[in-house]
User: Fold this.
Amino acid sequence: MTETSANSIGHYLKTHMREYGMLLALVVIMGFFQVVTDGVLMRPVNLTNLFLQNSYIIIMAVGMLLVIVAGHIDLSVGSVVGFIGALAAVMMVNWDLPPIIVVPVCLAAGAVIGAAQGYWIAYWRIPSFIVTLAGMLVFKGLTLALLSGQSVGPFPASFQLLSSGFVPDFFGGLIEGRFNLFSMVLGIVVAVTLPVLGLRSRAKQAKFAEIDEPLAFFMAKHAIAGIAILYITYLLSTYRGLPNVLIVMALLIAIFTFITNSTTIGRRIYAIGGNEKAAKLSGINTKRLAFLTFANMGMLAALAGLVFAARLNTATPKAGVAFELDVIAAVFIGGASMSGGVGKVIGAVVGALIMGVMNNGMSIIGVGIDWQQVIKGLVLLAAVIFDVYNKNKA
Assistant:
């Protein structure tokens, strides 16, 4: 690498510290807990549990990012998780309806809940903090009413596969022993596809403007990401393969990354958060977009509620309690700005993984739940201070 290219990479990292700082923090935190837990953190069984335990937080963090980027916040998501889980339990356990009917109905119910809250926020200009705080109380109460204060379960085995199922090995028998070859092939496909898509994006961007990201940094970034994907896929393949919920998360991340980076609606959501008045004057329907971000958030909260209920195999009145705090913390740790207009989907996912790895690692080494809360709070504060520092420096 030449001195000029090294300088350009250094300059690029300095100007994109918000984007890559938390990713580096995740690597450091994982390395730390890998050492202090004597390698337990990255064991296939624990790695699988790590994804299962944090799946619903990651799912909601993707939706919460759009809400926060648009300049709002949603405090009701935890209560919606509990309510949708209760609704699914009543429909499947008490009414004996099949999951193929219940799942779409619950997702639609979540979208309606989000849309109802978004209506008051977008069209009546009521602050999102107030509307969603009211929603939190309403759906906590409705969850208690639906379940009559008791737990309801168990769920049908087919529904439990949403959270506890694994991608089957369609190449079973080709390799002796407990190794999911099909999962490994999927990991290889993803590791190869990402840099190819990245190169296509660079070529497209080069036609209209100068590319800010140095080619050497681009190659190094994708090489490291590819190695990480292959390594994690290999570890999971030696256990039971890729969890179903990991595939769901990967699809959501891909879809919303595409929406935020490559579509008009994504750019308009960022414009609203950056300066709503200017966005409105430029012809953007700010009310409709704000409404849609909350409808989307409601649907993803419903999906998270289904995943969480399937994992517990029961619906409880206390399901989803304080989930909204973990989701909001994950988005801010991942680099989103409270003032709106800033943040990326991958950043929100990284923030959720930082929270998840810390929870998992501290539990393994025996840190009490009291100190876990203290440490997570300090990490959130440090992430916000880091964000403000970089913003003022720029």
Notes: Residues 193 and 226 are 10 Å apart (CA to CA).
